[in-house]
Each structure stands twice: as C-alpha cells, then as structure tokens.
Amino acid sequence: MKRTSARQGFSLPELLTVLAIAAVLLGLALPDLAGLLRARQLRAATDDLFGAISLARAQAIARNQRILLLPRDAGGIDWTQGWTVFADRDGDGAPGAGDDILSVHEALPAGVRAAFAFTSPAAPYYIAYNGAGRSCGATGSATARWGTLSLFQGGAIRRIKINMLGRARTCDPERDANCDGTAAPG
Length: 186
Fold this sequence. Notes:
The chain is an alpha+beta fold. It has one helix spanning 12-63, and strands at residues 67-71, 83-87, 100-105, 113-118, 127-129, 135-136, 147-153, 156-162, 168-171.
C-alpha cells in the first residue's frame, strides 16, 4: 500500500508572502497605469477630432459644397463638449433641422482641455472646407482659414495643425519640430 502526503497546497505564511509581494508590485505600477490611461485618452481624443476634420474635408470634396465642423456647446467655443460635422444648407452656421448632419461626437473625457488658435479668432470656433477641400470661412469659400487646435491632459499636449490648403496633421510638441501652438488654458 502506498502512502500519500497529507500536504497538498501552500501554507498560510507562504500565501501571505506572495500576496504582500503582489501588493507592493501593484502599488509601484499604479501611478504608471494612471499616466498611461491619461495618455491613451488624450491620444483617442486627438484621433477622434482628427477623424472628424478628415471627414469634413472628404465630404466637402465629395459633395462639392461647404462642410462645417463646430463645437457642440451653445457658444461654439468649447471643443471638449464634443463636435458636429454638417453641411450647412440654410447658411446659419449652426447645425439644424434643414442641414445634413454627418457626424456627432460626444464630450471628451474629464481632464481633457482644448485651445483653438486660427487665423480668425472670433467665436464661434469652427473649421470649414469648401468643395475643393480647402479650409475656408463659414460664409465664404474664397477666404483661407488655418491654424492649430490643441488638446491637453495633465502635462501632455497633442496638436492638430491645419495649413492654408486645408491639410491637417497631428503633432506632439515634445517630439516634433514646428509643433507650436497656444498654451494650456488656465
């Protein structure tokens, strides 16, 4: 007859030691995870806004008409409240019942801030494209309108720069040359 050992597992002190080591390692990793989450949120917000700008330009070319991208807040100045891409059929500069709404984006995550610096700094802040895919004014397709939209979270910054031809690019001022823009809002 064979005898089996009565011991089949870990003792309580062994389990407590492993849990203590895991807790210490988790405590060291949590600050990095929070920073990683903030960086990912900022990157996702930048990608979403860049995608909306690309959609507006592509639809302006495809439809051969002016397409606007406008912040969703009542004053048309706060990009963190989300945005709307639309064909302004009634010419009032705001999305409405008679307009073709192409895309709507909800508010950005808490902590993400935005700053707008374009050639025409007057509110409402908008981005418009004419049928040739060039950036333009909301009321006239001939006037070029270019500038920088900056997104901030913590100490990180991402910028979307639109040149006078309407081409957009993203950049990170910590890595990329010619990535200047406005300072973080206070």
